[in-house]
Amino acid sequence: QVQLVESGGGAVQPGGSLRLACVASGRPFSTYAMGWFRQAPGKEREFVASISPSGMTTSDASFVKGRFAISRDNAKNTLYLRMNALNAEDTAVYYCAAANKAGTPVEEFEYDYWGQGTQVTVSS
Length: 124
Fold this sequence. Notes:
Shape: globular
Strand content: over 45%
Helix content: under 10%
Number of helices: 0
Largest sheet: 7 strands, mixed
Order of helices and strands: EEEEEEEEEEE
Distance between the termini: 40 Å
Structural class: mainly beta
Radius of gyration: 13 Å
């Protein structure tokens, strides 16, 4: 079992920045690929970014456009998502997820464990 707890969400003005964190406990963090997903009101959950177990490889959604950066610190069992140039369309609940596999999975079904989510609201 892996437990995931997100933090760092909140309210921010358009153009602002946030850094989300996800602390993992349970099985060795460094063996899991990790990902961020988000779900906006009235929409399905969508992939944001993922990172390989070692942290050497990442993938991200087209809408990221260089604004977001996923990273991990395996020594601290922590996953991060740095988000810059936020806009209203980024308003959503952001979830971290763990996949017991290599690479940078992008599909929800590839992930085995999920956090409870953290709310990000971008508004003036």
